[in-house]
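Name: Malonate decarboxylase acyl carrier protein
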Amino acid sequence: MDILHFNRPARATEIRPALVGYVGSGDLEVMIEPATDACADIHIHTSTDGSEARWRQVIELIESVTTLPAMRMDIHDFAATPGVIRLRIEQALELAREETA
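Structure predicted for Malonate decarboxylase acyl carrier protein:
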């Protein structure tokens, strides 16, 4: 098991808490909480040892198409593929950016 931490530049923007996915066979969950500082604080607990390069690539890919909000993101991974990782992170970001009713 690896525990990874990435701190990325972010834009202060209003978001709400979000939760998508679940930890199960080949999947992961992503939880987002708003933050007040201008950084995206990403914490990853993964069952896959030696996966830091893969996680860094996925996060950089997401950053290339969207600006990260100021947030704390917690990810609990159970051997998800890069495609599932990206999908869940993008789902969580979309949900966090939705306006509250």
